[in-house]
Specification:
Shape of chain B: elongated
CATH superfamily of the largest domain in chain B: Crotonobetainyl-coa:carnitine coa-transferase, domain 1
Strand order of the largest sheet of chain A: 3-2-1-4-5-6
Low-confidence stretches of chain A: 1-11, 61-98, 402-416
Largest sheet of chain A: 6 strands, parallel
Helix content of chain A: 25-40%
Distance between the termini of chain B: 33 Å
CATH topology of the largest domain in chain B: Rossmann fold
Number of helices of chain B: 17
CATH superfamily of the largest domain in chain A: Crotonobetainyl-coa:carnitine coa-transferase, domain 1
Largest sheet of chain B: 6 strands, parallel
Number of strands of chain B: 12
Strand order of the largest sheet of chain B: 3-2-1-4-5-6
Helix content of chain B: 25-40%
Radius of gyration of chain B: 26 Å
Number of strands of chain A: 11
Number of domains of chain B: 2
Mean pLDDT of chain B: 94
Low-confidence stretches of chain B: none
Mean pLDDT of chain A: 87
Oligomer: heterodimer
């Protein structure tokens, strides 16, 4: 387990230390983009609506299939049903109203600061513009046009700060006939072409459980933002980035689009079988599900050895095409052995014979996975509402600039090892950094009090 | 080599001053360098004539394989595969054999002029060829080295291999995907690959930025699995708080109803509809009810609150499906969107290329590949107002830019390049193909 707070004095700086980000995002896609920036050490000031904050705070137990991104300006269903009782004291309300936290909020907003601000008030606008002048980056995921009508559009902010990078993430983008279409994850996954190819052939198209279109779009927005930041620092010229979640989905279709483009043959749903492949999918086993993956080709015959079924080494099954033609026969040969063995054992048996097997990991499996714990992947953060929890750590291990392999990675030591260059702090309470941020902008105590009294912050 | 932004030329691109030596294959690494090449980075994709990028497909594939133009592999199938050709536009393609001394000398020269080296070989492969990060820094002291094996460069699984489909399983994504009451389900693509590529691209830029300030390069160890787990972080936390594993719910949501895909007229045509607020539900109920569907739907107490709608979701979905069944997905979506209801067609291949919205935004681009002809490809995945990315040229044929890179960039004499060709160190025809 790693230390709780990499930002304590004496710890290593984040890779993006010194970069200031004005974060006008909410829900999922935008916050994932700014989470990558904040955990890399940028100072991310998240602007939240007074009293209620980011709507995703208020959803106590967010299941992975709950998408709340949309063009509805942060409105949310008020009749949300009660969530299951929470263990360990649950996600307590802390420090007054509007400070509820949810796993989604906690995860997506690590290492950020929270400033409450009423963007519809003149004083609120004045404050956010001051922040835009001091920031290198603004990220927002309001409905297209909302920033303009607030007086915070790129044309307005770039006059105040010509080097500013403004990244706008939206469902369908800032232009085009569907610009104003409302969408949740399911609609974006469908519009982006990914849903049609997921699921069983004779059943409805299926969405992913996790909101991967929104998260992936937020992640791509991080790439675009970094490129624009570098260009701005090199030339003094900022710019506006327009990133659409539906377009992210289309961009990762790969062969699902290409085979139609090249040969006119549509990609179809194949359930848990690999497309145009056999022995390439998810199978039941003794204690769950495993991934039987018949690659690399050359190693396939090895399977006969550890599954103790000589028939599996049949020359008819050696080529990809041969396996495809005999898919059912191969499945029938494997199944008894699979049902008699456990997932991790099957996974390792395959890997130890050079086959890229996998297994369907549950959340419990992930927390216990020997590879992740050996690499010190998880970060423990102690938020007042939850107590200490293990958070997934860096998506990329930065090592150091002097050593080929991170020091201590295998021992889980975070000091300059696995988490070098990344900074982890618990997600902020609502308005936790309002006072500090306003003071840094030059507001004195009485001004801050007055702003609070008027509900502006 | 190509400088944009000169007077009268095309607009500038953000990353023209950075050179990436790209030894990566398949999808995760190539998606990383695609994003960088889209924005003008000079990406030199290096392949071996013996073991080229397997996305190019076999040397002698069966006819009728649909990732080739008109399902016809042709004389040079390795240059005509859509899988490969959608991921390498605007990159330079070179070949080089690192198993030969002459090839190693060229490689070392390439390293010396590159800002970033990226590879996603099986863990330790480059080291077995004699190249460690510290060793490579002799040729380029401030090199940024990105190594992205499946499970990272340390730990008990470091030598294990994984395909994108496996990463979806080992990251927890597959566990939470599937029809309600059924087992886990894989996606139609492999999310683990582009996710890792995108994470890596952003972090490479952050590392380049830091190098500009400190003068120091960096070793970047990418575990594709860790990158994928990063997308389900909220569920990892929720599990620790509640002790409950995520449930597979098909297309439904635990918080809203309706929330599903509904059948339309025609074969395998679907529309997605969701009502996330009471207001959206009322609008939807009025439209369906006004159309004679679900008698008195808007006033039916069975569907009054979101709790009621979640409880009676089977019946509700049946009513909505009865209304959508005879209709087309686009008109339904347009009608519902007019009333502010989240709805969209489930787009298929032809729909995507004909979609009016994507057409207006240039989401897909037509590119004329000399060995393929004009075809549609996914374009640049975002728009930048000052440095718009663009496709500068189609994906390279095997070794297409050998002369340009080795001659113009490294300054090698033509006779030396010809010598490398003669010795099989470089070339344009594969000498083998190990497809994985």
């Amino acid at each position: 387990m790693t230390q709780k707070d990499q930002s304590t004095p004496g710890s290593l700086p984040g890779l993006l230390e010194g970069v200031r980000v004005l974060d006008l995002t909410h829900h999922i896609s935008g916050p994932y983009c700014t989470r990558l920036l904040s955990t890399l050490g940028a100072e991310v000031i998240k602007v939240e609506r007074p009293q209620t904050g980011d709507p995703i705070r208020g959803i106590g137990r967010i299941e992975p299939t709950t998408e709340v991104h949309g063009n509805d300006g942060g409105r949310r269903e008020t009749e949300i049903p009660p969530y299951p009782p929470l263990q360990r004291g649950g996600l307590a309300q802390v420090a007054g109203g509007g400070d509820a936290v949810s796993p989604w909020f906690l995860y997506l907003n690590s290492s950020k600061k929270s400033l409450t601000l009423d963007l519809k008030s003149a004083r609120g606008l004045e404050i956010v513009k001051k922040l835009a002048v001091k920031a290198q980056i603004v990220v927002e995921n309001f409905a297209p046009g909302a920033m303009d009508s607030l007086g915070l559009g790129y044309s307005q902010l770039s006059q105040l700060n010509p080097a500013l990078v403004m990244t706008s993430i939206s469902n369908y983008g800032q232009t085009g006939p569907h610009r104003d279409w409302k969408a949740l994850e399911i609609n974006l996954y469908a519009a982006g072409g990914l849903m049609n190819i997921t699921g069983e052939e004779d059943r409805p198209p299926l969405k992913e459980g996790a909101p991967l279109a929104q998260l992936g779009a937020g992640q791509n927005a991080f790439v675009a933002t970094m490129a624009a930041l570098m260009y701005a620092e090199e030339t003094g010229q900022g710019q506006h980035i327009d990133l659409s979640i539906a377009e992210y989905a289309t961009n990762i279709l790969e062969n699902a689009l290409m085979q139609y483009s090249y040969s006119g043959v549509e990609y179809s749903r194949v359930g848990n079988r690999g497309y145009g492949r056999a022995a390439w999918g998810i199978y039941p086993c003794g204690d769950g599900h495993v991934g039987i993956i018949s690659g690399p080709d050359t190693n396939w015959p090895e399977i006969a050895k550890f599954m103790e079924r000589e028939e599996l080494a049949d020359p008819r099954f050696v080529s990809r095409q041969g396996r495809l033609e005999n898919a059912d026969e191969i499945d029938a040969l494997m199944l008894p052995w699979l049902l008699d063995h456990d997932k991790v054992d099957i996974f390792k048996a395959g890997q130890d014979h050079g086959l890229g097997f996998a297994y369907v990991a549950t959340m419990q499996d992930i927390l216990e996975m020997e590879q992740l714990t050996a690499r010190g992947y998880f970060v423990e953060l102690d938020h007042p509402a939850t107590g200490p929890l293990k958070y997934p750590g860096p998506p990329i291990n930065l090592g150091s600039n002097t050593s080929p392999l991170m020091k201590g990675g295998s021992e889980g030591d975070s000091s300059g090892g696995q988490h070098h260059g990344w900074v982890y702090r618990p997600a902020p309470l609502l308005g936790e950094h309002t006072q500090q941020t306003l003071e840094e902008l030059g507001y004195d105590d009485s001004e801050v009090r007055s702003l609070r009294d008027r509900g502006i912050v | 080599m190509v400088q944009d932004g000169a007077t009268g030329g095309p607009p500038p691109q953000a990353l023209t001053r950075y050179r990436i030596l790209d030894l990566s294959r398949i999808w995760a690494g190539p998606y990383c360098t695609k994003l960088l090449a889209d924005m003008g980075a000079e990406v030199v994709k290096m392949e071996s004539l013996r073991v080229y990028d397997s996305h190019r497909g076999p040397v002698a594939p069966a006819r009728g394989v649909v990732s080739y133009p008109d399902a016809e592999p042709g004389d040079e199938p390795w240059n005509r595969n859509g899988w490969f050709n959608c991921l390498h536009m605007s990159k330079y393609g070179v070949t080089l054999e690192l198993t030969q001394d002459a090839g190693r000398r060229v490689f070392e020269q390439l390293v010396s002029i590159s800002d970033v080296l990226i590879e996603n070989f099986r863990q330790g492969s480059l080291e077995r060829l004699g190249y460690t990060y510290d060793g490579l820094r002799r040729f380029r002291p401030d090199l940024i080295y990105v190594s992205m094996p499946a499970f990272g460069n340390t730990g008990p699984w470091k030598e294990y291999l994984a395909y994108g489909i496996g990463q979806e399983q080992l990251s927890g994504m597959a566990h939470m995907t599937g029809y309600a009451g059924d087992g886990p389900m894989k996606s139609g693509i492999n999310h683990g690959d582009p996710i890792t590529g995108s994470h890596a691209a952003g972090v490479v830029l952050a590392a380049l930025r830091q190098r500009r300030r400190t003068g120091q390069g960096r070793y970047i160890d990418v575990s594709q699995q860790e990158s994928a787990v990063s997308l389900i972080g909220a569920d990892v936390l929720a599990y620790q708080v509640t002790g409950q594993e995520p449930q597979r719910r098909g297309n439904r949501s635990p918080g809203f109803a309706p929330h599903n895909a509904y059948p339309c007229a025609g074969e395998d045509r679907w529309v997605t509809i969701a009502a996330a607020t009471g207001e959206q539900w009322q609008s939807l109920a009025n439209i369906i009810g006004g159309d004679g569907g679900g008698d008195g739907l808007a006033d039916n107490p069975k569907f009054a609150t979101v709790g009621d709608r979640l409880e009676n979701q089977d019946e509700l979905d049946g009513i909505i499906a009865a209304w959508t069944r005879g209709k087309e997905p686009y008109p339904i979506s347009q009608e519902l969107q007019k009333s502010g209801i989240p709805a969209s067609p489930v787009l298929r291949g032809p729909d995507l290329l004909q979609d009016p919205h994507f057409a207006e935004r240039g989401t897909f681009v037509e590119v004329d590949h000399p060995k393929v002809g004009p075809k549609w490809y996914p374009g640049i995945p975002w728009k930048m107002s000052v440095t718009p990315g663009r496709v500068r040229w189609p994906s390279p044929s095997l070794g297409e830019h050998n002369r340009q890179v080795y001659g113009q960039l490294l300054g090698m004499a033509e006779k030396d390049i010809a010598g490398l060709e003669r010795d099989g160190v470089i070339g344009v025809k594969p000498t083998g193909s190990r497809i994985i």
